[in-house]
């Protein structure tokens, strides 16, 4: 994800399950954010339960907003590692 306009914005009743690729230069990464993103960039994961993520979420210069009942992982095999400049949690987000 490059450029100031590239953001994650899941909301409402989104039910999204993402797994990282297992081969290639970005193997293991669900999201890989530009290191030069402005510090004001916000990625929103909110609303009802999401399907979960299996892999790295790398957003080093950005803020990650988790609100409502957003879920980071949902299954026994899901493994999520998040790198971000800042997290903001509100409501009842769930990471297991």
What does the model show?
By secondary structure, this protein is mainly β. Helices cover 0% and strands 44% of the residues. It contains no helices and six strands. Strands 1, 2, 3, 4, 5 and 6 form a six-stranded parallel sheet that branches. The model has no long low-confidence stretch (mean pLDDT 78).
Brief summary:
The chain is 0% helix and 44% strand. It is an all-beta fold and 96 residues long. Strands 1, 2, 3, 4, 5 and 6 form a six-stranded parallel β-sheet that branches.
Count of helices? Answer: 0
Major beta sheet summary? 6 strands, parallel
Mean pLDDT score: 78
Strand content: 35-45%
Shape: globular
SSE arrangement, N to C: EEEEEE
The helix-and-strand class reads: mainly beta
Name the helicity range.
under 10%
From the N-terminal CA to the C-terminal CA, the straight-line distance is 26 Å
Low-pLDDT residue intervals, each spanning 5 or more residues: none
Present the secondary structure layout.
Blueprint: E1 9-10, E2 17-19, E3 29-32, E4 42-47, E5 52-68, E6 80-89
Parallel strand pairs: 1-4, 2-5, 3-5, 4-5, 5-6
Feature tags:
96 residues; mainly beta; six-stranded parallel sheet; 0% helix
């Amino acid at each position: 994800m490059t450029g100031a306009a590239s953001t994650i914005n899941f909301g409402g009743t989104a039910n999204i399950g993402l797994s990282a690729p297992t081969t290639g230069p970005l193997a293991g990464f669900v999201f890989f954010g530009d290191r030069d993103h402005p510090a004001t960039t916000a990625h929103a994961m909110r609303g009802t339960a999401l399907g979960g993520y299996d892999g790295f979420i790398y957003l080093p210069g950005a803020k990650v907003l988790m609100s409502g009942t957003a879920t980071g992982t949902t299954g026994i095999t899901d493994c999520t590692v998040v790198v971000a400049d800042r997290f903001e949690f509100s409501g009842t987000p769930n990471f297991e």
